[in-house]
Amino acid sequence: MAIIGNIIKGVINLKGAITTEPNPIEAQKQVFKNLLDTAKDTQFGKHYNFKNILNSNQPQQTFASTIPYHNYKKMKDEWWHKVINGETNITWPGTPDYFALSSGTTGKESKRIPVTNAMIEAIRQTGIDQVFALKNFDLPADFFEKEIMMLGSSTNLNEKNNHLEGEISGISASNIPSWFRGYYKPGEKIAKIDDWDERVKHIAKNAKQWDIGALSGIPSWMELMLEEVIAYHNVKNIHDIWPNLQVYTSGGVAFGPYKKSFNALLAKPITVIDTYLASEGFLAFQQRPETNAMKLVTNNGIYFEFVPFKPEYINQDGSITNDAPCLTLEEVKPDEDYVLIISTVSGAWRYLIGDTIAFTNVEKAEIIITGRTKFFLNTVGSQLSVNKLDDAVQHLEDKLDIKIPEYTLCAKRFDDDFYHSWYLGSETKNTNTEQIAEYLDNYLSKANKNYKIARSKALKGVKVKLVSPNIFHEWSGANKKKGGQVKMERVMGEDKFKEWETFVAQH
What we know:
InterPro entries: GH3, GH3_C, GH3_M. Residues 297-362 form the GH3 middle domain. This is Putative auxin-regulated protein. Residues 388-493 form the GH3 C-terminal domain. The protein has helices at residues 3-18, 24-39, 43-47, 50-55, 59-66, 72-84, 117-133, 168-174, 188-191, 196-206, 219-233, 259-263, 386-400, 433-447, 449-455, 469-479, 494-506; strands spanning 98-102, 111-115, 147-151, 158-160, 163-166, 184-185, 212-217, 247-250, 271-278, 281-285, 294-296, 302-308, 337-344, 351-361, 366-372, 406-414, 417-425, 459-467. It has 507 residues and is of the alpha/beta class. The chain has two domains: 1-373, Rossmann fold; 377-506, 2-Layer Sandwich (GMP Synthetase, Chain A, domain 3), CATH 3.30.300. Strand 8 (247-250), helix 12 and strand 9 (271-278) form a beta-alpha-beta unit. Helix 13 (386-400) crosses helix 14 and helix 14 (433-447) packs across helix 15. The radius of gyration is 23 Å and the shape is globular.
């Protein structure tokens, strides 16, 4: 009998029974007030007169009209360069002990995003809230006695100018509570190995020693790790090694494109729970099994605003125009795309995180990630967001019974005409790329009216090339770094696409 598991499950269920859900709108008003009150005497708070904003009749509206939108470059050039250089009380009281390094999906140069102790605590508390939400998933008591494989970036952080630097997953893992360390795998020693391939080899070598009940990490790198473990032990699937694996906490990107290839590594279905942990904070997690949407963390260190995702508000580089309107949680509507804007306990203010979301349930503040502002494919008016592209790829998987865990595309000019040029990562033996292109084209024409209109005008058609999924992983390794928070760019501009095609030709 799972005695400890029953105790843990009982505590989780009891807390759920006696804890009431905060009203998201009221929670956001309180977070907003706490943020400005805490930062009012910083350089940023004095410059924008947070005290006056707090004392105004409509502080949230005054805040929005007073402070401009910031992307990373603007925040760094105007404010965070001082924080990076060790100056104190710039955008948040004191100086941060950590900086999250993030190249995201855009380039080689790492961003340095402050991670304060207040943010570390917010991430930890949200993680605890997520654990307590497991009561909704009706997991057996013995699950709570199993170990958790957290596949993030290295916890071997770099010391620089009196602070530590690393990816957010590595920073978070290096700050796990002491009571959790007995459950945490691959353990501190292996987690500190900086080289991703070497770390995975050690995981594979030690895998049979662990009783893994849950996985956590970005789908693409999780798949590669599972494949390595399966190959090392010469078994059919991961359940031959970890028979009690029941839960996968996915994050970083939409799980949909990986569902088919991921499930092929399993012997039985497992529960997939989506999370939204970015370098800037822990933004949302799936709270209940009836939906794949995630609940925004409205009561813990992050204030959210929402810009309607319309072409007239989006600049060519993915930033938003200064006059773009902004809504509070109280004003949003379901099933409409919004650019996510955050202000946080790490001193990010009206910060463009780069993601677009849509509300599936406004009352519960539940969202899905619909894409990236930089990955919005609108070169010839097709207005395709990443979720539409993901849907098209999943349609191909179902129609052709193949696995396509990775893809990228570009609106590329061939002679005088534009085509959507797709690269699909698949090991399929089906080499009829013209037929595959036709399926893609037909699906998108039916699913998106703007795409259909574009196809009757400037967009002449679709071209498809099939390459090994490993090419995508090697591209990420060559341009950024394997593992961790690294994600493949789904849409590229023409210059980047030239680099990609040269890379593919060399491999």
